[in-house]
Amino acid sequence: xxxxxxxxxxxxxxxxxxxxxxxxxxxxxxxxxxxxxxxxxxxxxxxxxxxxxxxxxxxxxxxxxxxxxxxxxxxxxxxxxxxxxxxxxxxxxxxxxxxxxxxxxxxxxxxxxxxxxxxxxxxxxxxxxxxxxxxxxxxxx
Length: 141
Ligand code: ZN
Known about the structure:
The chain is globular, with a radius of gyration of 16 Å. The two termini are 30 Å apart. 6% of the residues lie in helices and 35% in strands. It contains one helix and eight strands; from the N terminus they run αββββββββ. A hairpin with a 5-residue loop joins strand 7 (112-119) and strand 8. A five-stranded antiparallel sheet has the order 6-5-4-7-8. Strands 2-1-3 form a three-stranded antiparallel sheet, covered by helices on one side. The protein has two domains: 9-58, no CATH class; 60-132, CATH 2.40.50.840. By secondary structure, the protein is mostly beta strands. It has one helix at 15-22, and strands spanning 27-31, 37-38, 54-58, 63-71, 82-89, 94-99, 112-119, 125-131. Zinc ion binds next to loops. Zinc ion binds at residues 31, 33-34, 36, 45, 47-48, 50, 53.
């Protein structure tokens, strides 16, 4: 894939999240008050509204396809066809991301995914996902 032209800079709410991506660590905002996880990072908890109980916790990045579509139109930084997906992480949080699949048209809702990273020019990275191979579908040589 080519370079993504514009990714928003970090702000006060997203700074810790972006910093973690520099180390290829996926973190979620977690509330010690009510136990909620949320993404993207915000100034207050969407579960209980508190602002002093949020911290970032590293997660595995394991998830499943919640919804997906194949984009066939060229966009700067994206070579068609490519998969745009809502990815539901094991913690229940949903991320909008890409699924990097050999066959974009074979990606289905419910498919298990594993975390990967797409590097940005400034050292940050975007979380992307790859399908977990299904052993039952592996071809025998
Ligand atoms: Zn909360």
